[in-house]
Amino acid sequence: MNTGSTRGGRARRLLRFSVTAVLLAILGSLAAATSAAAPAALDLKAGQALYATHCALCHGPSGLGDGPSAAGFATKPSNLADGRLMNGLPDDFLANVITHGAPAEGLSPGMPAFGAYLSEVQIREVILYVRSLASPPFRAAAVLPIVAPPRAPTQPIFFSHLIHAGKYQIDCQYCHADARRSEYAGLPSVERCLGCHKIIGAQDNPEIGKIQEYARREQPIPWVRIFKLPEFTYFTHKAHVRFGLACQACHGPIERMRVVGAETGPSLTNDLMNLIGLKPPPRPLTMGWCVECHRAQNAARGARAPLDCITCHH
Ligand code: HEC
Ligand code: HEC
Ligand code: HEC
Ligand code: HEC
Ligand code: HEC
Ligand code: HEC
Predict the structure, then answer these.
(1) Structure confidence at residue 130 as a pLDDT band (50, 70, 90)
(2) Does ligand 5 have an atom closer than 6 angstroms to the CB of 291?
(3) Per-residue DSSP letter, 65
(4) 313 lines ligand 6 (CB under 6 A)
């Protein structure tokens, strides 16, 4: 019995040992596989050579947008060396433009697609070189990724917040000008768009051309609404914005979205999770979401946010 159990114990130890060994081997090979799959060290020199043959003609030898062909374009080749504008754009944005052409981000078709001529690694090498031209210098750690929110509808014009509010840092309230003074934040009029786009992109960008068409037909742009409360509730931007809440507190990082979207309102899944005692965070624009923030802000910041039914339901 004794020897039996010792032998059994040793067998178990052996088994445990070999299982551990197998696991370690699998983990080892996984690690090797992932390190093999990870991009090989990118070559700046190779990027420089690719840039000289494929990009300098339009963007110029130093990336300033002053190549020999630049004059022929209505929308000029971008100044890729302007770090104030370029440094905030993630590599994925640049890679998308280079691979699929600038229209993939709503920009001018003057920038062609290179996906058929350059491999993925070569595109990363060109980007590495483009980054090295930036002044002020590019710092990878300072770049925030693009956010692809759920349920983004197709809009009548491919309008990108990533470009307007992210790259160019146009103030939210320049376009949503009613947020401080009324119930609604408001969407910019066609005239507001034309304030810039009578000139910018007007000649060669078909997405921007659509603005002119709406203007000619004297039609508002039929934007699809994303954040919308049911009729029986009362919400006002004014009080929230004046209290100092950031737009992002309720709408998410809009300036990092090429298209805006969100999961809002009650959902069956959340209701079921609540029913069985899991407490998922309330979804935006549900009553629980409003009330939870009101409680928190009243407690932490001495706000006077309403908790009574009448204020939100009159
Ligand atoms: C035939 C001319 C041409 C060539 C060649 C060209 N580009 Fe462009 N590129 C443009 C134009 C024009 C724009 C401006 C698009 C806009 O702003 O609407 C642009 C825009 C871009 C942008 C977007 C930057 C921004 O403003 O957000 C990037 C990135 C870019 N080019 C990189 C490259 C790279 C890298 C190469 C070489 C692989 C290259 N381009 C080759 C014409 C060119
Ligand atoms: C304060 C100036 C300004 C205003 C106002 C403005 N834009 Fe732009 N927009 C720009 C600049 C700058 C670019 C970049 C152009 C380029 O590089 O080709 C741009 C690019 C675009 C583009 C191409 C890139 C993208 O976003 O897909 C579209 C489409 C566009 N704007 C639509 C609009 C619409 C619609 C409005 C009004 C709701 C508007 N813009 C208001 C400055 C402005
Ligand atoms: C150049 C003008 C412009 C700027 C700047 C701008 N927006 Fe917008 N915004 C628009 C347009 C046009 C739409 C409608 C198309 C869309 O949903 O993308 C919109 C839509 C939205 C929506 C969705 C509205 C809905 O239907 O529910 C939100 C939220 C929003 N913007 C917030 C912001 C925030 C926050 C900022 C600043 C970080 C900002 N916007 C900057 C023009 C602008
Ligand atoms: C306290 C949360 C909150 C804050 C802060 C907030 N919003 Fe809103 N926003 C909402 C809600 C809720 C709706 C839907 C309102 C409705 O349907 O009546 C909305 C709707 C919108 C819309 C759609 C149409 C409209 O005219 O109202 C836009 C655009 C918008 N917000 C932009 C902004 C901008 C820009 C800011 C910052 C200046 C901002 N919001 C700050 C909660 C907020
Ligand atoms: C991110 C936090 C936050 C969210 C989310 C939020 N609120 Fe508020 N709300 C506040 C704060 C803070 C105040 C109080 C401002 C003050 O004390 O001046 C307030 C005030 C109000 C007021 C009083 C307005 C007035 O004129 O005095 C109403 C009504 C209101 N909220 C409705 C809503 C509704 C409806 C929702 C959900 C759709 C909502 N809020 C979501 C933070 C929030
Ligand atoms: C801070 C704002 C706020 C307060 C306070 C508030 N509600 Fe609501 N309520 C909402 C919003 C926004 C909705 C719509 C979104 C939803 O259905 O979750 C809503 C939805 C509802 C609904 C419809 C729910 C459904 O399933 O369609 C009822 C009923 C309701 N509220 C009752 C009340 C009562 C009763 C009180 C007081 C105890 C109250 N509410 C206080 C904001 C509020």
Answers:
(1) very high
(2) no
(3) S
(4) yes
Residue 100: what residue type? Answer: H
Place of tokens 């339901």: 313
Average pLDDT over residues 143-171: 97
| 126 close to ligand 1 (CB < 6 Angstrom) | yes
Cis bond before residue 136 (omega within 30° of 0): yes
CA dist., res. 287 & res. 273, Å (int): 16
How far apart CA 188 and CA 241 sit, in angstroms, is 18
Assessment of whether the complete model's pTM goes beyond 0.70? yes
Looking from the CA of residue 174, the nearest atom of ligand 3 is 5
Q: Could you count the other beta carbons within 10 Å of the beta carbon of residue 302?
A: 7
Domains of the chain, residue spans: 44-142, 271-314
Instruction: Tell me how far CA of residue 314 lies from CA of 16, 183, 188, 283, 287, in angstroms.
Output: 67, 14, 28, 22, 14
CA of residue 78 to ligand 1 center, whole Å: 6
* Cβ atoms within 10 Å of 241's Cβ, excluding its own: 20
Superfamily the domain 44-142 falls into? Cytochrome c-like domain (1.10.760.10)
